[in-house]
Amino acid sequence: MARVFSGIQPTGDLHLGNLLGAITNWVRDLDHDEAIYCIVDSHAITIPKDPGELAERTLALASLLLACGLDPERCLLFVQSHVPQHAQLGWIMECTVSFGELSRMTQFKDKRERADFVSAGLFTYPALQAADILLYDTEKVPVGDDQKQHIELCRDAAERFNRRYGDTFVLPQHSIPTAGARVMDLQEPSNKMSKSAASPQGTVLVTDAPEAVLRKFKRAVTDSDGEVRYDPATKPGVTNLLSILGAATRTDPAALAERYSQYGPLKTDCAEAVIAVLEPIQARYAELRDDPAEVQRVLRVGAERAESQAATVLDRAQRAIGLLPR
Ligand code: TRP
Prior knowledge:
Oligomer: single chain
Strand content: 5-15%
Helix content: 40-55%
Radius of gyration: 21 Å
Number of strands: 5
Shape: globular
Bound molecules: tryptophan
């Protein structure tokens, strides 16, 4: 059993890339990992958000994660801001990482370009992320490549802290998420599927109705050579469809290629397989959306459990660094 921690921002709707690339594996890994999943609302406010929308999205994301099968009996699911130790250790980590290190974070450089307002929090964000991870004696952090630099910073910070103040933190490792599908945009298959894509037709949302899913797959961009082959470099569109179908049916995508000689049937099968995966999730989601009090209850229990673990580690860190115990 490895201790696994991952954070997910309550921004935008969950799409097929999140589901097949990450969440499906989270659910699968519940049996052999001790998993902690945190909805990182404090990270979300590094870029100003509409207040009503943020709370609503946090609740919706929690409902959707539960609907996807993140069983709160078998993992820890909670909201970051409900557990004050994140902010507390976050500050200590801000004082552990250097200005230079934070300045080298490529995600900051990217986001800074696009933001109208560059908050200090956007800059120190990786320090808070380090706190998220270290508070639970996390061993593995299964996140995408874009987060690797943050996990390395977290590890460096933990090492530095341990060197300065004595053994306090478990050193976490970035782990490649288990064989999740790399789902690309249906309209621009050389880009990862994302909530901020140029065309909404390229992104399949977990909450999309079956007709919308079918339409998006039918319009998926392929190529003109007419051959069904798994080849990410020269056939990104067709390869993406094969990966999605493979992930949805748990079949090897390259082997699937042999079953098709035309793009049309591949697209419809892909849509049908995705619809079949989404159906039970959407049904459960609708139930949970009708019962927000139940979701709030689950989150409250999650936060209580998280807090009792986080408090122990925070206390260790505070004592190590020399803050006077209360
Ligand atoms: N930074 C992550 C993202 O943008 C979210 C996140 C916050 C996270 N804290 C984390 C991921 C801790 C893993 C571990 O996707």
